[in-house]
Automatic annotation (TrEMBL):
This is ASCH domain-containing protein. It comes from the Bacteria. Residues 150-173 are annotated as: Disordered. It comes from Cellulomonas dongxiuzhuiae.
Length: 173
């Protein structure tokens, strides 16, 4: 399990996420916190596979396996590839820039990747599940961990992973 700073690989995501967090923090009456992104890494037969969620556009098939796609922002927008996300499994590790923390003590069952077929395809950025916060890539990882029986993982202290609690709540239903 790895935590990376949101937008570590690009300027646009880092800046827009920082502004968004400032607005949310002001609305909630708290100080802004650094945002983090969860990536689940699973070793299977000596190969590290990373579970991640991101935009469908601008990627080549390569060594990734797409297991789910869903809409971004609004369900009707998902008809356009620019407003779709994919949940993917990528072979190999070390692809994620800006790693902040690693939780090596997480013991996952070997079949955790089999659970990917059951991940809900909610609209990214919306709370369609009524879980109290929007669905994000962090929701997917939290959902997988919770369904695997691992509920002890939390974002690094002093940071926030939007959607983390939503994934855990949906998985417990």
């Amino acid at each position: 399990m790895r935590w990376s700073a949101v937008g570590a690989g690009g300027h646009v995501a880092r800046r827009t996420s920082a502004w968004w967090e400032r607005l949310v923090a002001a609305r909630e009456g708290r100080a802004p916190q650094p945002l983090v992104h969860a990536v689940l890494e699973v070793e299977v037969a000596g190969v590290v596979r990373s579970v991640d969620m991101g935009p469908t556009w601008g990627r080549t098939r390569g060594t990734r396996r797409v297991v789910l796609t869903g809409p971004v922002g609004a369900r009707w927008l998902g008809r356009c590839p620019l407003f779709r996300y994919e949940v993917r499994v990528v072979d190999g590790s070390g692809r994620l820039p800006g790693v902040l923390a690693v939780s090596d003590d997480v013991a996952l069952p070997g079949d955790v990747l089999d659970l990917l077929a059951d991940v809900p395809a909610y609209t990214w950025g919306r709370d369609e599940a009524g879980a109290g916060e929007m669905w994000t890539s962090d929701s997917v990882v939290a959902w997988l961990l919770e369904r695997s029986g691992v509920s002890s993982v939390e974002p690094p202290p002093g940071s926030r992973a939007p959607g983390w609690a939503a994934g855990a709540r949906v998985a417990r239903r």
